[in-house]
Design a protein that fits this description.
Layout (H helix, E strand, L loop, with lengths): L13 H10 L6 H18 L18 H9 L4 E4 L5 H8 L6 E6 L2 E8 L2 E4 L8 E3 L1 H13 L3 E6 L6 H8 L4 H5 L9 H24 L4 H6 L2 H22 L8
Antiparallel strand pairs: 1-6, 2-3, 2-6, 3-4, 4-5
């Protein structure tokens, strides 16, 4: 378990922790992501000069938008695909989640990774003190539970970089006894995982109460997937393209 790269929650830097958990190494810092956010802001402002100067891709707490995460992953030729997208690729991922490489989840601006290492799945949520093993059988149930609670879920496509944990766990998968601490090996005890479960439940309960206060139904949260956001971004890009086209048309005086 100690071979798995895991960053604990620091401030609101869950996007950084999520990316590094996915890539299994300290590949991105807050400074790196801030630079990507700045590039996105500049690109958006060049197309919309009258838009607000306030960044839509980061804030002072350490929050970063999905556009920043997407741009960071593109450096590694990786892509996020909404699990609920109506496409053959997404349908396959829904039917056989264990055949995927990793999932990235978001709930009220908190990002975390669920990733396969070796032949086993791990919840790498930074609010937990250590990674948590998820059985193949439970993975589908867990994803369904997260969707019901209002999480947006994306699966990752592309080739992930190799990691020490991945290589080791291919040949030495963890046993249930090792995870629960019932064998004579160093590692987390079952009480440690119970504490993590309680922290997770408290975090989810807090998020759920905030949603109730704002009178947002679970069904509405489920439907507000990133696919819809991407469609809006695409439409905006098309509108900008049309605008640019008309701006550059030669005037009749020049004919």
């Amino acid at each position: 378990m100690e071979r798995i790269f895991h960053e604990k929650q620091e401030g609101s830097l869950c996007a950084q922790h999520c990316l590094n958990a996915l890539l299994q190494g300290p590949f991105f810092t807050a400074v790196d992501l801030a630079e990507l956010a700045k590039q996105l802001d500049e690109a958006e402002q060049s197309h919309l000069p009258n838009s607000s100067r306030r960044s839509q891709n980061m804030d002072e707490t350490g929050y970063f938008s999905i556009q920043v995460i997407t741009k960071a992953l593109s450096i590694w030729s990786l892509e996020l695909v909404p699990l609920l997208r109506q496409s053959p690729e997404a349908e396959t991922a829904r039917k056989n989640p264990t055949n995927q490489k990793a999932f990235i989840c978001n709930f009220r601006d908190h990002w975390f990774t669920i990733r396969r290492l070796g032949q086993q799945w791990f919840d790498l949520n930074s609010i937990m003190s250590r990674p948590k093993l998820i059985s193949n059988t439970y993975l589908e149930i867990y994803l369904a539970q997260l969707q019901k609670e209002g999480h947006s879920i994306f699966f990752v496509t592309g080739k992930l970089p190799t990691s020490e944990a991945d290589r080791y766990l291919w040949e030495n998968p963890l046993s249930e006894q090792e995870v629960s601490g019932t064998v004579d090996q160093p590692g987390p005890s079952s009480s440690d995982y119970e504490d993590d479960d309680e922290q997770m439940k408290l975090a989810l309960a807090l998020c759920q109460s905030e949603m109730d206060e704002e009178d947002v139904s679970l069904q509405h949260a489920l439907q507000a997937t990133q696919e819809e956001e991407q469609e809006r971004e695409l439409q905006r890009a098309l509108e900008l393209s049309v605008k640019d086209y008309h701006c550059f048309q030669p005037s009749s005086d020049l004919k």
